[in-house]
Amino acid sequence: MIKKTAAITAVGKYVPDYVLTNKELETLVDTNDEWIYTRTGIKERRILKDVDKATSYLAVQAARDLIAKKGIDPEEIDMIIVGTATPDMNVASTAVYVATKIGAINAFGYDLQAACSSFLYAMSTASSYIESGRYKKVLVIGADKMSSIVDYTDRATCIIFGDGAGAVLFEANEEGLGLQDEYLRGDGIGREFLKIEAGGSLLPTSQETLDNRQHYIQQEGKTVFKYAVSSMADAGGKILERNNLTNDDVDWLAPHQANKRIIEATARRMNLDMSKVMMNIKNYGNTTSATLPLLLADYEEKLKKGDSIVFAAFGGGFTWGAVYLKWAYNS
Question: Are residues 141 and 209 in the same domain?
Answer without folding.
Answer: no
